[in-house]
Amino acid sequence: MEIFKKTPQIKFLKYKFIALIVTAVIILAGALNIFIGKGLKMGVDFGEGTLIRVVFKNAIAIGDVRQKLTDIGLGGSSIQKINNSEREYQIRAVEVRNIKDQAKDSLESHAELSNRIIAALKSDEGKTETAQGLADLNTIDQKSLAALLETAFPEKGATLAEQVLTARKNETNKGAFADFSNLSRDGVQADAANFLKGKTFLGKLNVLSIESVGPQVGADLRNKAVLATVWSLIGMLIYIAVRFKLANGVAAIFTLTQDVLITLSIFSFSGREFSLQIVAVLLTIVGYSINDTIVIFDRIRENQKTLRKMPLEDIMNLSLNQMLGRTFITSGTVFLTVMALFLFGGPVINDFAFCMIIGTIEGIYSTIYLACPVVLFWQKWFPGKRGRR
Amino acid sequence: MKKGLRWKIILTLAILGLCLYLAIPLKEKIKLGLDLKGGIHLSLKVKTDDSINGETDQEIMRFTELFKKNSITFAAAAKDEKPGKFTFTGMDADQQAKAKDLIDQYTADWDISYMADRVTFTLKPAVETVLRDQAVAQTVETIRNRIDQYGVSEPLIQRQGTDQIVVELPGVDDPERVKELIKVAAVLQWKLVKGGPAQDQATLLQPFGGAVPADMEVVNGDPKRGHPGLYLVEKVAAITGSDLRTVRRGTDEWNNPAVAFTLSPDGARRFEQVTGANVGKPLAIILDNRLQSAPNINTRISDSGIIQGQFSNEEVNDLILVLKSGALPAGISTGEQRVIGPALGSDSIRQGMMAGLVAVLLVMSFMLIYYRLAGVNAVIAMIFNVVILFGVLAYFKANLTLPGIAGLILAIGMSVDANVLIFERIKEERALGKNVTGAIGLGFDRAFSAIFDSNLTTIISAVFLFQFGTGPIKGYAVTLIISLLANMFTAVFVSRLMFDVTIPKTATKLSI
User: What is the per-residue pLDDT across B243-263, written as a single tens digit (0 to 9) for each?
Assistant: First the structure.
């Protein structure tokens, strides 16, 4: 099977100026959006704040969740439904800017904040049960649960606790039992389930994760992220310059910088949060997007040996056309896998997949329209001792 | 069959077998990262200034005593705002001359400057660096002790940079308790009570003319222990936590949980002195500057006693644990805290597996449809790649994280790239009229440089990512690096071998 039955004859380099303008426009729009517009939304990794994921035992409307947060003065927090269910929510608490007290451990204030949020979401539910000395089966930790079960089932507490907690985190319960009948349905021994029904109650929610990052660590990570990106770009420049020529190295770094910038620009419009994962994507794009470029450079080098008379621009056009099928297929297979991640990988990895999709598509464009023109310009401006090759 | 070919097959099968052996059963052999297993990640900063301040206090006390003993007079000793600097003021030239001999004799760690009426001590930078370094190293040790005693399997407690400590506790689902356990300074002191309890400072200090006497200080009672008021206690501790020899569970006279302790011989001697001279008076037990209880001294006590304070069973256990592991040399602040519950991890694994399965099926179908029989070759190479990845992960006990799963899935898409380049090249050579085996040989040879370069560039950036990243992201970088390295073997060597074995030399048709 072939994508192109015959090698296509597209004069890609005719459009080099248009391509440069398109690139510039996208980057400029992104820059405007980031620096003047609403800015790049910093995730909890890089900004301060607290990210809480909770699962409710029963569905609850997003409006209700917001109302509960508004009641404690945190209505401005971002609230997201997860997995399209009304049970799981992700809450990014707004920063506690009013606590300017530097002496106070600022992360402690975030921790307090998350405690307040969780208390508000629970509201008064479970208070009477707790007062009666019942434990919340939806939040209890393994050790305590084992100890509780041990009182009725000597020697078997640990095994039973394991059973219960395995059931609690399965696909239907997702961290919180809606009803005691779920216990025996999901493989908990009947007498243990009965015992727990008497000794515990099912709290309204369970906390899936809490992530808090203080201002210092956030700033530190930001610096490190920028450094890692810059160093890997320099690494590419050196590697390509050694394996090919300086012109190719410069073109590679130029292409990759624009890969990163365009991905960032488009990402900034998506309203998603910039996190450590996104840095990972950017670096992956830096490392991967160069692959197609290398394949093209490799072919140009080969064609230059056989077609000595042909001007460089024509050789480039020829090489691009010869490699076009390859460019589409290689990026295509990665695109397939990234789509699978995007559609099925779940909420935690969704931003990663989204950003990778942009990067993969954008990588094709930059390989074709950017890498070669830059080499061309460079050779024109710095024609070396042996002249243009 | 050619001899070379036979060895290649044996080598390939041996690697495959080894990786399968290392990785199976997956559930036991592959370690899951915090984000999949659940647990706590803390990034702590040691307030090393504390240890410098402590050193400064000690030095001030030492020289104050030395000067008094040798009747050298001065107005006051004052600590500078900057840690590691203090000044004796009101010392004239005569006194300074006398002091100089003593100072030269007793300390080498401080730079001393003599001015008109004062002597300033500045901690030498080299000494300061050592002290700060020790404080961090000691904190790491203390935290490790506490975690070990609490019982967490495979904890990671690692120093990072000059004053950071990263703590990762997989499987822990009781974050508040563990955090408390790590962060509590556990500075335990016994001090004689001179006044209180009182509601506010004014009432407390009334008998003393409204000011805190020089040899006393005010401490807060701990409301959790039923002592909400303020107390006035002696500044100098009778004994401290470092005088303890053993601690264990005990009970107080009402059978409430308490901590029983015995003292070192030196501590016992001092405790005997203090308790003997103060029978009938209250002695405060102060933990981290909060008064836990202030029982009356009924009789002279020498080498053993109890710490009471309306503790719960758990609190007694934790207190014993931190007392055993010793006090922290400096305060700790948390820079980053991530608590992942087990339910989130299970969900992530399920979804990651689903995405992986879909990705494999998509890529497989594409390769089989597009390259037909040669596609089978690529698919086998791809599966081989995944097996090697798991084998290496298991061998190095590297953690599989959620981004790591994403990296694995991505690697599935990237690993066939090399085969795509090779196959396209083979097609090209065939179109130029080369025979089947010739085209295959040329395809592999000529595509190799591009494959090598492109895999290596991705590895380079992944290495930088590894340097930069924290836990989950490191896991991503690791899977990416391993699978790209494996890719050079599977897509080039193994895939070539499969052609060599399946395509006869005389073949005239190639399904590609």
Answer: 778 888 888 778 888 888 888
Q: Are B410 and A284 in contact (CB under 8 A)?
A: yes
Interface pTM, i.e. ipTM: 0.86
Task: Report DSSP letters for A352-385, one per residue.
Answer: HHHHHHHHHHHHHHHIIIIIHHHHHHHHHHS-TT
Among A1, A210, A349, select the one facing B369 at the smallest CB separation. Answer: A1
Residue B345 pLDDT class (50, 70, 90 cuts): confident
**First vs last C-alpha separation in chain B:** 24
Asked whether B485 and B460 are in contact (CB, 8 A), the reply is: no
Tell me whether residues A349 and B460 touch, CB distance under 8 A. Answer: no
Inter-chain contact B414–A329, Cβ cutoff 8 Å? no
Contact A13, A319 (CB under 8 A): no
User: Would you call A232 and B366 a contact, using CB atoms and an 8 Å cutoff?
Assistant: no
My answer on whether B104 and B16 are in the same domain is no
pTM of the model: 0.80
Give the domain range for residue B123.
48-128
Residues 222 to 241 of A: which have CB under 8 A from any B CB? 224-225, 227-229, 231-232, 235-236, 239-240
The answer to whether residue B433 sits within a structural domain is yes
What residues 48-87 of chain A have any CB closer than 8 A to a CB of chain B? 53, 55, 83
Any domain includes A6: no
The total number of structural domains that make up chain A: 3
A295 contact B CB<8A: yes
Decide if B267 contacts B243 (C-beta within 8 A).
yes
Distance from CA of B102 to the nearest CA of A (A): 38
Across A84-98, A217-231, A340-354, B190-204, the highest mean pLDDT is recorded for: A340-354
Residue among A141, A110, A139 nearest A122 (CA): A139
Give just the sign of the alpha carbon dihedral A70, A74, A77, A82.
Answer: negative
Token pair of B481 as six digits:
């690096």
Chain mean position to CA B393:
22
* Chain A residues within 8 A of B359 when measuring between CB atoms: 336-337, 340-341
A209 touches chain B (CB under 8 A): yes
Instruction: Based on the fold, state whether residues A23 and A72 are members of the same structural domain.
Output: no
Tell me: do B320 and B346 sit in the same domain. Answer: no
